[in-house]
Amino acid sequence: MRATVDIGDLATPQLSETQAGLLAWGDTVITDLSAEAVLAAAQQRAELTDFGAPDFRERLQQLCTEWDSDRGITAFNRAVLFGYLVRYASNRLLIQAELGRHPEILLEPVARPVVVVGLPRSGTTHLVNLLATDPRLQSLPLWESYEPLPLPGEPAPGDQSDPRYRRCAAAWTGMQQATPLIAAMHPMEPDHVHEELELMGPDFASYNFEWLAHSPGWRDYYYAHDQTPHYEYLKNVLRLLQWRRRRRDRWVLKCPQHLEQLPVLLRVFPDATVVFTHRDPVAVIQSTVTMQAYTQRMNRRQVAPGQLIDYWSDRIEHLLRACVRDRALVPADRSFDSPFHSFMADPLATLARVYGLAGIALNDAARDRLEHYLAAHPRGRQGQVVYQLRRDFGVEPAALRRRFDFYVERFGVWPEVD
Fold first, then answer.
1. 10 Å Cβ neighbour count for 269?
2. Which residues are within 8 A (CB) of 271 and not within 5 positions of it... i.e. 6 or more apart?
3. How many CB atoms within 10 Å of residue 226?
4. Is 337 exposed, middle or buried (0-12, 13-18, 19+ CB in 10 A)?
5. Does the pLDDT at position 377 exceed 90?
6. Ordered alpha helix ranges (H), 137-246
7. How far is the C-alpha of 281 from the C-alpha of 120, rounded, in Å?
8. Which CATH superfamily is domain 4-411 in?
9. pLDDT (tens digit, 9 = 90+) per residue, 333-362?
10. Confidence of residue 378 (pLDDT cuts 50, 70, 90)
11. How far apart are CA 169 and CA 143, in angstroms?
12. pLDDT tens, 119-150?
């Protein structure tokens, strides 16, 4: 029987000894969250100086200014955010150097990717990890998305002995120490297939930064700028990875951001096969804000349930309105809509349709791998989270769902939350 996880102290956290100790340690650390400090630390880490095109500096400055001026961020989280930015800037240096040494990388074809597109918490991760069991497809494990290239002088065997893998594993261990219930909501093991949006990090682009800290300024900046150059940057890093792997198999990708960037996605990946996952927006929002509120005990000086429900309800609506507007841009012979309830009830039936649409044979070997993965990764294996939208956020599910009638009616989405 799976354990249930009811986080009854979301708004007023009761910190463990480990959590209190980490926050106390953070208060002893002074973090210079300036763009200059980030770039200097990255140059020292990567032992390189050429960042390439300078346009990224404006985006980095936008992030640093917003986060540095936010007095609600804990000192512990300031140090974590600085580490994220330094890793991205280091990756940029390494990518720039590799492309300079091997310009032929930019001629690599990235052909006919299979792209899973849907709301966060709507089954996209489960679907892409199932597809990633097929060796005929290339995928992006978390450890490699965090560090596409090794640091100078490091071996790069591409397995669990790789220093990049070990750093990712250590980060996951640290995350579980700080927020032990996170595994039941969003596991981040090194082998876990992750969103390719991480590869936009070195270009300091994407909506991913909104998940790291409350960033309405960054959201508005992102909305105001064409994302095509950043999708092109992502494609170039995929080219680099497949050049290093010496294989040109089709990629399987996934990210919720693509819902509001379908014209850009199709411009950069014009031959993509796109699978849309659809789930009750209320279920998505309650899962998202619960996870965010839980991590805020470490990231913010005060948990803000009202701010979270307002922000993420708006954010999910923006994603879905763009999807409804642009869904027809993807040709019918290269796309289909996958309801969450159908996928959860019969994953293999959904996978069979994906394979058929992509023109990949669902042979016995592929079916065996899928069945083995499903048996080894049952839903809720780390515990089933009990979500309490009324109790924790003061929101009536039915009233919130009416905001999304335009989407629910368009795709026939089943309500999950009463």
1. 22
2. 111, 112, 334
3. 10
4. middle
5. no
6. 142-146, 163-178, 209-212, 216-223, 228-245
7. 10
8. P-loop containing nucleotide triphosphate hydrolases (3.40.50.300)
9. 999 999 999 999 999 999 999 999 999 999
10. confident
11. 8
12. 998 889 999 999 999 999 999 999 999 999 99
